[in-house]
Amino acid sequence: MSQRLQHSLQRRRVLTLFVSLLVSLASGTNYVFSAYAPQLAARLHISHTRLNVIGLAGNVGVYLSSPFWGMIVDKTGPKPNMFAGFCLLLMGYLGIRVIYDTGLTQDSNKESESVSTATFLLLVLFSIMTGVGGNGGYSASLNVVAKSFPDSLRGSTVGIVVSGFGLSAFIFSFIAHHAFPGETSFLLLTLALGTALPMLIGFLFVRPIPLEEPPEVFPSEPDSQTPLLAESGLRRVSAFHRPLLKHLHGRKLLTSLDFWILFSVFSLVSGTGLMYINNVGSMAQILYLHENYPEYNEIEVSRWQATQVSTISLVGFVGRIFIGILSDFSKAHFALPRSYLFILVTATALASQIVASQVDVVSHLWRSSGLLGFGYGMLFSLSTSIVSEWFGLAHFSETVGFLTISPLIGGNIFSLAFGKNLDAHSPVTPQMLFLVEKEKSRRQCREGRVCYVDALYLTIVGCALSVLLSIWAGWRDHKRIERAFAEDEEREVERPSRVDC
After folding, report:
1. 11 in a structural domain
2. I need a labelling partner for 481 at 20 to 30 A (CA). Which of 42, 232, 399, 492 fits?
């Protein structure tokens, strides 16, 4: 390949990475839900449990659509995903905005009246659309970057794209807090336009760039010196280039124990993250009310809620970049499989829930938010790299899609448990999540972390189990690598005798 062509491909890769990051920044806005969820609940008189259903609907859209988006982008490229993402994001957020602006109907003037079932179902549908649309663009950008960069850079470049997915919550939360504080309608309009337009840019510029063929490490025709020269090179290739598992995909994944271990770890940790992200706004509000009752400052509460969203997003961004670089470095320099780092990821998630269960004041809530964001960010970046390492790139997006169905299990269990736990501590449920008048605050749980801590005990158990599973995954990977090395050495021992013959 000529040097001029190489430079051209490098420039195209950089452009692809940049635009893919832009698309990713527009794709993760489901994490902004907690920034406007309390206001949505207050205006429409929605209970904690119903609010969790709306938040989960967006996540259902993300994760349930993943296998289908993966199959589409693997077969047809990124353009269908980008166009569909544009349409779904625009309609989804504008739909939520219209319902929010309309509020309750004129005849719904009773304090106990809630939004109608039909309107509630529309909110669920629009939330699903935002999840499906964002995930369409994200799947396309992730697929293109994974296939456009060599394995030596794949962890870092994939980490950059994945980090954008988490950073989007900070960007839109920052805009909401500084550009129009308390103006939820403008935030929803910004979400509609700010997520849809990058999908059009991705439609024009995101496309896979072909990789160069790697040079042979040693000659294909062996001679008497080949074993001596090739042994160290063979080990490096086995550790860095050789797939550790067969290229399983589709239904064949169901026969792989390694896939189920990965699936379980992802479900437990991401489910914990979804529960926390969707409800940290309520946690901040409850802790604030516990400290300041009967005083209640809407602007102050909004500030603490935005702080949690920004902390999770920013630290998650750092975590996604950090684990990508660390996984590439540890594999290239120490021949360590990326799966070992799952122990770090799951231990961080466990620590976040332990800290959250002990926080009594809203000013300390950022500590658990930071730990949760770091672990959650590392999880997504590391998991995508491990999928390419274990199962190959031929069906990369499809496999990632099946993996990301798993948060539906953990996320639903943990989030609904949180909502039920909080409702059980609140005397009246329909209109108490976001309270402006002092007399309404009497209906909100004022016991601080006691209002929700039982749900955190459940996630602590889940994260502890994920730590054990990650240790098992690392042990299995270690054994698999040792077997591969042993087989390679046996072949090298047999090769001289064949050459002599």
Report:
1. no
2. 399
